Amino acid sequence: MAKYTNTRSSLIKFMLIVGLIVAVFSVISDNLPYLGDGVTILEFIISYLDIMINSLPMWFILALLVGYLFAKDMKEAAFLGSIYTIASITFYFFYKVDTIPLPFKEQAIIYAIWFGTSAIGGILGGSLGFLSKKSKYALLILLGGLVFQLLVNGKDSWGDIVGISQNLTYCLVILVISLYLVIFAFKRNRDQNVEYLKGDGSYDVL
């Protein structure tokens, strides 16, 4: 019971702290000024963090972490992932200041789309997080998502220092995941061969 309570306490802290951080950086990202050639190191770091944290892959990865760290089964992973993303988007709208007021109907449609999309993304991310505990190859889905994001960004995103840095980060994550899966597959295949040879009785491998 104590372990269950601690897990729920950690989950709430994660949602509050990470959700608030994501919301604040996302709001700042929406209002970033144009960064020309004279950008300072501090401006670059802030802009890079804002854009990365406000990107779809990062929102998805954080929902994935919720499913991986806190869920006991697939259903709970989907539920917790959606709750996390809904909490984050709620914080986002709380901090966001609209300069142009919209009619209630248009606002309701916007909220419905954003909350619905966030819930779906959270369900998928949380579920993938739980699946990755069962099979490392579930990360191939994340790998495909990152490649897709690079294609969506397009060649124009390589035209400024922040866009280049964001794309290079995605490329680095793709490389790390790919190497991890290759090493995992190699190690598992080696261990299976060792167990087979031990069971066969032919010879032992130290």
What do these coordinates show?
It is a single chain. By secondary structure, the chain is mainly alpha-helical. Helix content is 80%, strand content 0%. The protein contains seven helices and no strands. It has helices at 2-30, 41-53, 56-70, 74-95, 104-134, 139-153, 161-200. Helix 1 packs across helix 4 (74-95). The longest helix has 40 residues, at 161-200. The model is unreliable at 201-206 (pLDDT under 50).
Topology, element by element:
Layout: H1 2-30, H2 41-53, H3 56-70, H4 74-95, H5 104-134, H6 139-153, H7 161-200
Helix pairs in contact: 1-2, 1-3, 1-4, 2-7, 3-4, 3-5, 4-5, 6-7
* pLDDT averaged over residues: 84
The largest pleated sheet is described as: none
Helix percentage range: over 70%
Number of helices: 7
Shape: globular
Supply Rg: 21 Å
Tell me the total number of β-strands.
0
Tags for this entry?
mainly alpha; disordered C terminus; single chain; globular; 206 residues; 7 helices
Q: How would you summarize what this structure contains?
A:
With 206 residues, the chain is mostly helical. It has seven helices and no strands.
